[in-house]
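note to self — DONT lose this again. spent like an hour looking for the file last time. sequence + predicted structure for the chain T wanted, 303 res
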Amino acid sequence: MAKSILLIGSNGQVGKELEKILNPQGNLVAIARPEIDLTNRDSIVNAITNSFGKQNKPQIIINAAAYTAVDKAESEVELAIMINATAPAIMAEIAEKIGAALIHISTDYVFDGNNSQPYLETYPTNPVSVYGKTKLAGEEAIEKISNNYLILRTAWVYGCFGKSNFVKTMLRLGGEREEIRVVADQIGTPTWAKDIASAISSVIETADIQDIQGIYNYTNSGVASWYDFAVAIFEEAQNIGFPLKVRRVVPITTADYPTPASRPAYSVLAGAKISAILGTFAPHWRQSLRNMLKDLIVKSINH
């Protein structure tokens, strides 16, 4: 029998992809603002307890919502805390009460980036930004409250949905300018929202969350700097006919491009733990980028 799933944050990059994948599988209720206000306890409680009517409750709650404006979080600390830390704690509390599993999406920003090898789930956390600190607080609250949870840390997320992400920004700038400067000394793994959604869907289908409870990393395979990623975006986009003006991508340092929030210099996440559950390794980031750009063309034609 299909599990009843409540998806919170269905308007985000990963949320939209999750809704598309999970919808045909059965009993899905997908909500986002304004139906749920993550800064309001009553709104969260009501959304979860009434999502399937008075008699039925979700068996799985997926929290794909977050405050993700990394630089803005430095000045909107209270709001970031409410959405990234307090709201997941409330979800965990209600999930415990109704006997539901909680799947929560977190981030590579819980690490400081001082490593030189991929981060295992067990490595010490040490966030260097408000965003990272609030996401870590959300993780810690879930671990403390819940006995039936899965926290999925991911990184450098992009996709066809959502207003802006690195790929969409590069395509826009690449259509306007001949030269683009991109940071080359931050290393991570670009990750397609659709692959994250597929991984979550597979976990739901094949495993009982309680049996595999804990923190997992999931990103695409491979490693890149933002500069490498930008170069690849333009190469792949040109190959399939995106109209681009860009002629040069210039590598710069983090110091050349100061931002309000500090970012980890190295945030590659080790993926072996989730791969053992999924029975397969995540696709390489370049392959996923290629597929996303094809999806983006199809989406623009259909609209």
